[in-house]
Design brief:
Elements: H1 15-24, H2 30-58, H3 69-79, E1 86-90, E2 97-99, E3 104-108, H4 109-113, H5 117-135, H6 138-166, H7 171-211, H8 220-255
This protein binds zinc ion.
Zinc ion (ZN) binds near residues 125, 129, 198 and 201.
Length: about 260
């Protein structure tokens, strides 16, 4: 998926598909490409840089309580009665995610050990996903159900795009186009259902950080800004998938004229 933490939440990398879409354009009209693909690519890049800069800013602001991300995640889960989720460390930058299948809450090293506003925000957000899982939050269940088919679609899509770039015109090309549309319907649906899941996890995180006394109300601005910037990347990912879907549908319309 496009950037940001939770991106790794058990799904393959959408970024490569977006870059392919940008370079190959799928053989559609230049106009459609300029209207649908270029602006969303810029939006995605902007959201990416926004989440990086916001995270980096608040990763340098220590919390007064000095509790680490791992401790904060544990506290949020404990207060929800969760005792069977393991908190682990994972390599990389913003690779934090909750793995509902393995019941693991993986925090990147800087968020696991860090006690910055950004670290606590991300850690509590991931714990928010564990809480969603525990209570059977509907949107998370729907998202999990979509994971296998979304993985197939994101693996098939690059092949479809490369194929359609080399084969222009003919019945085979129409089949590829339809296959591409099907893949994007699945990806767009997945990105759509991700929005309430991510939003809800952040709402839970903010509430619990204050309720458990981990952060003071005056420290919440940093958490709020970090989590909002992350939310923006999910919106950008959805808009990006939707735009490409519309673009492909317009090509299908065009091919029938
Ligand atoms: Zn998340």
């Amino acid at each position: 998926m496009l950037f940001g933490f939770c991106g790794g939440m058990e799904i393959g990398n959408f970024m490569s598909t977006d870059i392919l879409a940008f370079y190959l354009g799928g053989g559609g009209s230049i106009m459609g490409y300029l209207i649908f693909i270029v602006p969303t690519f810029i939006l995605a890049m902007w959201a990416q840089s926004k989440v990086s800069s916001t995270y980096n800013k608040y990763a340098r602001v220590p919390s007064r309580g000095r509790i680490t991300g791992a401790e904060a995640a544990a506290a949020v889960m404990r207060s929800a009665g969760i005792s069977d989720v393991k908190i682990t460390q994972v390599r990389g930058h913003l690779t934090d995610h909750y793995d509902p299948i393995g019941k693991k809450l993986a925090l990147s090293e800087e968020n696991y050990h860090g006690s910055s506003l950004a670290a606590l925000g991300v850690a509590a957000h991931e714990a928010g996903h564990a809480v969603q899982h525990k209570i059977g939050y509907g949107a998370l269940k729907a998202r999990m159900a979509l994971v296998p088919i979304t993985n197939i679609a994101s693996n098939v899509l690059p092949l479809v795009m490369i194929g359609s770039f080399f084969i222009i015109g003919g019945a085979f090309s129409l089949t590829l186009l339809k296959l591409g549309i099907l893949c994007y319907v699945i990806l767009t649906l997945f990105q759509l259902i991700t929005l309430p899941v991510e939003y809800d996890a952040s709402v839970r995180a903010k509430k619990e950080l204050v309720a458990l006394g981990i952060l003071g109300n005056d420290e919440m601005v940093g958490v709020e800004k970090t989590l909002n910037a992350a939310a923006l990347t999910y919106v950008a990912a959805f808009v990006s998938s939707l735009s490409y879907l519309i673009y492909l549908l317009s090509m299908l319309g065009g091919s029938r004229d």
